[in-house]
Amino acid sequence: MPIETQGVVALGKGQPVSLETVIVPDPGPGEAVVEVQACGVCHTDLHYREGGIGEDFPYLLGHEAAGIVSAVGPGVTDVAPGDFVVLNWRAVCGQCRACLRGRPWYCFNTHNAKQKMTLADGTPLSPALGIGAFLKYTLVAAGQCTKVDPRASASVAGLLGCGVMAGIGAAINTGNVGRGDTVAVFGCGGVGDAAIVGSVLAGASKVIAVDVDVRKLAWAQEFGATHVVNSRETDPVEAVRALTGGFGADVVIEAVGLPQVYEQAFYARDLAGTVVLVGVPRPDMQLTLPFLEVFGRGGALRSSWYGDCLPSRDFPMLIDLYLQGRLPLDRFVSSTGTLADVEAAFHEMEAGSVLRTVIVL
Protein backbone atom coordinates (compact mmCIF):
# COMPACT_ATOMS: atom_id res chain seq x y z
CA MET A 1 0.00 0.00 0.00
CA PRO A 2 1.32 3.47 -0.83
CA ILE A 3 2.23 5.56 2.22
CA GLU A 4 0.79 9.01 2.86
CA THR A 5 3.08 11.23 4.92
CA GLN A 6 4.09 14.87 5.43
CA GLY A 7 7.18 16.17 3.65
CA VAL A 8 9.09 19.43 3.25
CA VAL A 9 8.54 20.74 -0.27
CA ALA A 10 9.85 23.75 -2.22
CA LEU A 11 6.87 24.63 -4.41
CA GLY A 12 8.51 27.49 -6.31
CA LYS A 13 11.77 29.35 -6.76
CA GLY A 14 12.71 31.38 -3.71
CA GLN A 15 9.50 30.57 -1.86
CA PRO A 16 9.58 29.46 1.78
CA VAL A 17 9.29 25.71 2.07
CA SER A 18 6.03 24.16 3.25
CA LEU A 19 4.82 20.90 4.74
CA GLU A 20 2.80 19.04 2.13
CA THR A 21 1.11 15.65 1.93
CA VAL A 22 3.36 13.27 -0.01
CA ILE A 23 2.42 9.89 -1.48
CA VAL A 24 5.21 7.30 -1.35
CA PRO A 25 4.59 4.32 -3.67
CA ASP A 26 5.43 0.71 -2.89
CA PRO A 27 8.99 -0.11 -3.97
CA GLY A 28 9.35 -1.45 -7.49
CA PRO A 29 12.20 -3.56 -8.92
CA GLY A 30 15.53 -2.42 -7.55
CA GLU A 31 13.92 0.06 -5.14
CA ALA A 32 13.56 0.41 -1.37
CA VAL A 33 11.41 2.38 1.02
CA VAL A 34 13.33 3.73 4.00
CA GLU A 35 11.89 4.98 7.28
CA VAL A 36 13.90 8.15 7.82
CA GLN A 37 15.10 8.67 11.39
CA ALA A 38 17.18 11.82 10.91
CA CYS A 39 18.16 14.15 8.08
CA GLY A 40 20.66 17.02 8.09
CA VAL A 41 19.81 20.43 6.63
CA CYS A 42 22.43 20.89 3.91
CA HIS A 43 23.24 23.98 1.86
CA THR A 44 22.37 21.98 -1.25
CA ASP A 45 18.75 21.90 -0.11
CA LEU A 46 18.80 25.69 0.05
CA HIS A 47 20.27 25.79 -3.47
CA TYR A 48 17.32 23.71 -4.66
CA ARG A 49 14.85 26.05 -2.98
CA GLU A 50 16.52 29.05 -4.62
CA GLY A 51 16.51 27.48 -8.09
CA GLY A 52 20.31 27.30 -8.12
CA ILE A 53 20.39 23.66 -9.24
CA GLY A 54 17.39 23.37 -11.55
CA GLU A 55 13.86 24.45 -12.30
CA ASP A 56 12.09 21.10 -11.78
CA PHE A 57 9.78 22.36 -9.05
CA PRO A 58 8.23 21.18 -6.83
CA TYR A 59 11.25 19.73 -5.03
CA LEU A 60 11.05 17.30 -2.14
CA LEU A 61 13.98 18.44 -0.03
CA GLY A 62 16.36 16.57 2.27
CA HIS A 63 19.10 14.10 1.39
CA GLU A 64 21.61 13.83 4.26
CA ALA A 65 19.77 11.01 5.99
CA ALA A 66 19.88 7.73 7.85
CA GLY A 67 17.13 5.31 8.79
CA ILE A 68 15.74 1.80 8.65
CA VAL A 69 14.83 -0.08 5.48
CA SER A 70 11.06 -0.61 5.62
CA ALA A 71 10.43 -2.54 2.39
CA VAL A 72 12.29 -3.61 -0.74
CA GLY A 73 11.17 -4.32 -4.27
CA PRO A 74 11.77 -7.35 -6.49
CA GLY A 75 15.39 -8.26 -7.18
CA VAL A 76 16.87 -6.41 -4.20
CA THR A 77 19.44 -8.52 -2.37
CA ASP A 78 21.98 -6.10 -0.87
CA VAL A 79 19.63 -4.67 1.78
CA ALA A 80 16.60 -6.05 3.61
CA PRO A 81 13.86 -4.70 5.86
CA GLY A 82 15.30 -3.83 9.26
CA ASP A 83 18.76 -2.80 7.99
CA PHE A 84 20.14 0.47 9.35
CA VAL A 85 21.37 2.50 6.38
CA VAL A 86 22.85 5.84 5.39
CA LEU A 87 21.40 7.18 2.15
CA ASN A 88 23.75 8.16 -0.65
CA TRP A 89 23.11 10.02 -3.88
CA ARG A 90 25.57 8.13 -6.07
CA ALA A 91 24.27 4.58 -6.46
CA VAL A 92 26.83 3.08 -8.84
CA CYS A 93 25.75 1.12 -11.89
CA GLY A 94 28.65 -1.36 -12.12
CA GLN A 95 28.49 -1.30 -15.93
CA CYS A 96 29.69 2.10 -17.19
CA ARG A 97 33.23 2.71 -18.44
CA ALA A 98 34.34 4.07 -15.02
CA CYS A 99 32.96 1.11 -13.11
CA LEU A 100 34.40 -1.41 -15.58
CA ARG A 101 37.83 0.22 -15.22
CA GLY A 102 37.70 -0.30 -11.45
CA ARG A 103 36.85 3.32 -10.61
CA PRO A 104 33.23 3.08 -9.43
CA TRP A 105 33.56 6.31 -7.39
CA TYR A 106 33.54 8.07 -10.79
CA CYS A 107 30.47 6.14 -12.00
CA PHE A 108 28.97 8.01 -14.98
CA ASN A 109 25.57 6.34 -14.72
CA THR A 110 24.49 6.67 -11.11
CA HIS A 111 20.80 6.07 -10.65
CA ASN A 112 17.80 6.81 -8.45
CA ALA A 113 14.36 5.25 -7.96
CA LYS A 114 12.42 5.04 -11.23
CA GLN A 115 9.05 5.75 -9.63
CA LYS A 116 8.12 9.22 -8.47
CA MET A 117 6.80 10.30 -5.12
CA THR A 118 3.94 12.74 -5.62
CA LEU A 119 1.84 15.39 -3.96
CA ALA A 120 -1.67 14.35 -2.94
CA ASP A 121 -3.04 15.67 -6.25
CA GLY A 122 -0.63 13.46 -8.23
CA THR A 123 1.94 16.15 -9.06
CA PRO A 124 5.33 14.41 -9.39
CA LEU A 125 8.02 15.56 -6.98
CA SER A 126 11.69 16.02 -7.83
CA PRO A 127 13.63 14.58 -4.88
CA ALA A 128 16.74 16.53 -3.86
CA LEU A 129 19.80 14.65 -5.12
CA GLY A 130 17.51 11.77 -6.02
CA ILE A 131 16.62 11.16 -2.36
CA GLY A 132 14.09 13.56 -0.79
CA ALA A 133 14.33 12.73 2.92
CA PHE A 134 12.54 15.47 4.83
CA LEU A 135 9.65 13.10 5.47
CA LYS A 136 8.98 9.96 7.49
CA TYR A 137 9.35 7.51 4.58
CA THR A 138 11.18 7.93 1.29
CA LEU A 139 11.57 5.89 -1.89
CA VAL A 140 15.09 5.38 -3.24
CA ALA A 141 17.05 3.02 -5.44
CA ALA A 142 18.27 0.14 -3.29
CA GLY A 143 21.84 1.04 -4.27
CA GLN A 144 21.37 4.34 -2.47
CA CYS A 145 21.13 2.46 0.83
CA THR A 146 24.46 1.75 2.53
CA LYS A 147 24.37 -0.54 5.56
CA VAL A 148 26.37 0.69 8.56
CA ASP A 149 26.76 -0.33 12.20
CA PRO A 150 23.39 0.29 13.89
CA ARG A 151 25.09 1.36 17.12
CA ALA A 152 25.65 4.77 15.53
CA SER A 153 23.02 7.43 16.09
CA ALA A 154 21.02 8.31 12.97
CA SER A 155 21.56 12.00 13.76
CA VAL A 156 25.28 11.69 13.13
CA ALA A 157 25.36 8.76 10.70
CA GLY A 158 23.23 10.64 8.19
CA LEU A 159 25.81 13.42 7.97
CA LEU A 160 27.99 11.07 5.93
CA GLY A 161 25.32 11.20 3.24
CA CYS A 162 26.63 14.51 1.88
CA GLY A 163 28.65 17.30 3.50
CA VAL A 164 30.89 15.41 5.89
CA MET A 165 31.71 12.76 3.29
CA ALA A 166 32.41 15.46 0.70
CA GLY A 167 34.95 17.14 2.97
CA ILE A 168 36.66 14.05 4.33
CA GLY A 169 36.81 12.55 0.85
CA ALA A 170 38.20 15.77 -0.64
CA ALA A 171 41.19 15.38 1.68
CA ILE A 172 41.68 11.61 1.72
CA ASN A 173 40.36 10.41 -1.63
CA THR A 174 40.81 13.37 -4.00
CA GLY A 175 43.70 15.23 -2.40
CA ASN A 176 45.52 12.07 -1.30
CA VAL A 177 46.72 13.82 1.85
CA GLY A 178 49.48 11.73 3.38
CA ARG A 179 51.57 11.55 6.52
CA GLY A 180 53.60 14.70 7.05
CA ASP A 181 51.80 16.74 4.38
CA THR A 182 50.88 20.36 4.89
CA VAL A 183 47.27 21.23 4.10
CA ALA A 184 45.39 24.50 3.75
CA VAL A 185 41.57 24.55 3.79
CA PHE A 186 39.84 27.64 2.41
CA GLY A 187 36.32 27.91 3.83
CA CYS A 188 35.52 26.42 7.23
CA GLY A 189 31.84 25.56 7.12
CA GLY A 190 30.68 21.97 7.43
CA VAL A 191 32.50 20.70 4.33
CA GLY A 192 35.71 22.58 5.10
CA ASP A 193 35.76 21.38 8.70
CA ALA A 194 35.23 17.82 7.44
CA ALA A 195 38.24 18.32 5.16
CA ILE A 196 40.22 19.37 8.22
CA VAL A 197 39.12 16.22 10.03
CA GLY A 198 40.07 14.12 7.00
CA SER A 199 43.50 15.75 6.83
CA VAL A 200 44.10 15.02 10.50
CA LEU A 201 43.01 11.40 10.03
CA ALA A 202 45.41 11.08 7.11
CA GLY A 203 48.35 12.25 9.22
CA ALA A 204 48.91 15.80 7.97
CA SER A 205 51.63 17.57 9.97
CA LYS A 206 50.09 21.03 9.59
CA VAL A 207 46.49 21.98 8.80
CA ILE A 208 45.85 25.65 8.09
CA ALA A 209 42.26 26.90 8.22
CA VAL A 210 41.38 30.00 6.19
CA ASP A 211 38.12 31.93 6.55
CA VAL A 212 36.72 35.44 7.03
CA ASP A 213 34.55 34.48 10.03
CA VAL A 214 36.18 34.25 13.46
CA ARG A 215 33.46 31.83 14.62
CA LYS A 216 34.27 29.43 11.83
CA LEU A 217 37.99 29.69 12.53
CA ALA A 218 37.28 28.74 16.14
CA TRP A 219 35.28 25.73 14.92
CA ALA A 220 38.16 24.77 12.65
CA GLN A 221 40.52 24.65 15.62
CA GLU A 222 38.10 22.39 17.46
CA PHE A 223 38.24 20.01 14.49
CA GLY A 224 42.05 19.89 14.51
CA ALA A 225 43.38 22.86 12.55
CA THR A 226 46.88 23.66 13.78
CA HIS A 227 46.81 27.24 12.47
CA VAL A 228 44.12 29.71 11.43
CA VAL A 229 44.20 32.62 8.99
CA ASN A 230 41.58 35.36 8.93
CA SER A 231 41.59 36.32 5.26
CA ARG A 232 39.55 39.43 6.02
CA GLU A 233 42.55 40.80 7.89
CA THR A 234 45.56 39.38 6.05
CA ASP A 235 46.61 38.07 2.63
CA PRO A 236 45.85 34.34 2.90
CA VAL A 237 48.35 33.34 0.23
CA GLU A 238 51.23 35.05 2.02
CA ALA A 239 50.02 33.71 5.36
CA VAL A 240 49.93 30.11 4.11
CA ARG A 241 53.38 30.49 2.58
CA ALA A 242 54.75 31.96 5.82
CA LEU A 243 53.41 28.96 7.74
CA THR A 244 54.97 26.48 5.30
CA GLY A 245 58.56 27.72 5.10
CA GLY A 246 57.76 30.08 2.22
CA PHE A 247 56.71 27.24 -0.10
CA GLY A 248 52.95 26.87 0.14
CA ALA A 249 50.89 23.86 1.22
CA ASP A 250 51.19 20.41 -0.33
CA VAL A 251 47.39 20.17 -0.63
CA VAL A 252 45.00 23.13 -0.73
CA ILE A 253 41.27 22.46 -0.48
CA GLU A 254 38.81 25.09 -1.72
CA ALA A 255 35.52 24.54 0.10
CA VAL A 256 33.76 27.77 -0.88
CA GLY A 257 33.14 27.63 -4.63
CA LEU A 258 34.15 31.21 -5.51
CA PRO A 259 36.60 32.05 -8.34
CA GLN A 260 38.53 34.55 -6.21
CA VAL A 261 38.95 32.00 -3.42
CA TYR A 262 40.02 29.33 -5.91
CA GLU A 263 42.66 31.72 -7.24
CA GLN A 264 43.98 32.20 -3.71
CA ALA A 265 44.06 28.42 -3.26
CA PHE A 266 45.95 28.06 -6.55
CA TYR A 267 48.72 30.39 -5.43
CA ALA A 268 48.80 29.08 -1.85
CA ARG A 269 50.02 25.60 -2.89
CA ASP A 270 53.59 24.46 -3.19
CA LEU A 271 55.14 23.66 -6.57
CA ALA A 272 53.80 20.30 -7.76
CA GLY A 273 51.13 20.55 -5.05
CA THR A 274 47.45 19.76 -5.42
CA VAL A 275 44.42 22.03 -5.43
CA VAL A 276 41.09 20.33 -4.69
CA LEU A 277 37.82 22.09 -5.51
CA VAL A 278 34.97 20.77 -3.38
CA GLY A 279 33.02 24.03 -3.02
CA VAL A 280 30.18 24.20 -5.56
CA PRO A 281 30.30 27.16 -7.99
CA ARG A 282 27.25 28.79 -9.51
CA PRO A 283 26.65 28.13 -13.23
CA ASP A 284 27.43 31.73 -14.21
CA MET A 285 30.88 31.87 -12.59
CA GLN A 286 34.07 32.14 -14.65
CA LEU A 287 37.70 31.54 -13.66
CA THR A 288 40.76 33.13 -15.28
CA LEU A 289 44.32 32.01 -14.51
CA PRO A 290 47.60 32.74 -16.34
CA PHE A 291 48.09 29.71 -18.54
CA LEU A 292 51.85 29.77 -17.98
CA GLU A 293 51.28 29.59 -14.23
CA VAL A 294 49.07 26.53 -14.67
CA PHE A 295 51.89 24.90 -16.61
CA GLY A 296 54.82 26.21 -14.61
CA ARG A 297 53.57 25.38 -11.14
CA GLY A 298 52.93 21.74 -12.06
CA GLY A 299 51.01 19.51 -9.73
CA ALA A 300 47.30 18.83 -10.05
CA LEU A 301 44.07 20.80 -10.17
CA ARG A 302 41.31 18.40 -9.16
CA SER A 303 37.57 18.57 -8.63
CA SER A 304 36.06 16.39 -5.92
CA TRP A 305 32.70 14.77 -6.68
CA TYR A 306 31.07 13.80 -3.39
CA GLY A 307 34.56 13.39 -1.97
CA ASP A 308 35.20 10.81 -4.71
CA CYS A 309 33.67 8.36 -2.28
CA LEU A 310 32.45 4.84 -2.78
CA PRO A 311 29.65 4.64 -0.19
CA SER A 312 29.85 0.87 0.25
CA ARG A 313 33.54 1.23 1.12
CA ASP A 314 33.70 4.58 2.91
CA PHE A 315 30.50 4.87 4.97
CA PRO A 316 31.02 1.72 7.09
CA MET A 317 34.69 2.58 7.61
CA LEU A 318 33.91 6.12 8.79
CA ILE A 319 31.15 4.91 11.09
CA ASP A 320 33.66 2.46 12.60
CA LEU A 321 36.08 5.34 13.20
CA TYR A 322 33.27 7.30 14.84
CA LEU A 323 32.40 4.42 17.16
CA GLN A 324 36.10 4.12 18.07
CA GLY A 325 36.12 7.79 19.08
CA ARG A 326 38.46 8.79 16.25
CA LEU A 327 35.97 10.74 14.09
CA PRO A 328 34.11 13.57 15.90
CA LEU A 329 30.83 13.45 13.99
CA ASP A 330 28.88 14.73 16.99
CA ARG A 331 30.64 18.09 16.77
CA PHE A 332 29.06 18.79 13.41
CA VAL A 333 25.56 18.83 14.92
CA SER A 334 24.80 22.37 16.09
CA SER A 335 21.12 21.78 16.84
CA THR A 336 18.20 19.45 16.18
CA GLY A 337 14.64 20.17 15.10
CA THR A 338 11.50 18.87 13.47
CA LEU A 339 10.21 19.07 9.90
CA ALA A 340 8.53 22.37 10.79
CA ASP A 341 11.96 23.87 11.55
CA VAL A 342 13.57 23.46 8.11
CA GLU A 343 12.86 27.01 6.90
CA ALA A 344 14.28 28.49 10.12
CA ALA A 345 17.33 26.24 9.73
CA PHE A 346 17.92 27.73 6.27
CA HIS A 347 18.00 31.22 7.78
CA GLU A 348 20.48 30.10 10.45
CA MET A 349 22.62 28.55 7.74
CA GLU A 350 22.62 31.77 5.72
CA ALA A 351 23.65 33.68 8.84
CA GLY A 352 26.57 31.28 9.35
CA SER A 353 25.55 30.55 12.93
CA VAL A 354 25.37 26.74 12.62
CA LEU A 355 27.34 23.89 11.11
CA ARG A 356 24.42 21.50 10.82
CA THR A 357 20.85 21.43 12.00
CA VAL A 358 19.59 17.87 12.03
CA ILE A 359 15.90 17.14 11.59
CA VAL A 360 14.88 14.23 13.82
CA LEU A 361 11.79 12.24 12.84
Automatic annotation (TrEMBL):
Keywords: Metal-binding, NAD, Oxidoreductase, Zinc. The keyword Iron-sulfur does not apply. Residues 14-360 form the Enoyl reductase (ER) domain. GO terms for molecular function: mycothiol-dependent formaldehyde dehydrogenase activity; S-(hydroxymethyl)glutathione dehydrogenase [NAD(P)+] activity; zinc ion binding. InterPro entries: ADH-like_C, ADH-like_N, ADH_Zn_CS, ER, GroES-like_sf, MycoS_dep_FDH, NAD(P)-bd_dom_sf. Its cofactor is Zn(2+). GO terms for biological process: formaldehyde catabolic process. The keyword Nucleus does not apply. Pfam families: ADH_N, ADH_zinc_N. Its EC number is 1.1.1.306. One of its GO terms (cellular component) is cytosol. It is an enzyme of class 1 (oxidoreductase). Belongs to the zinc-containing alcohol dehydrogenase family. This is S-(Hydroxymethyl)mycothiol dehydrogenase. It comes from Dactylosporangium aurantiacum.
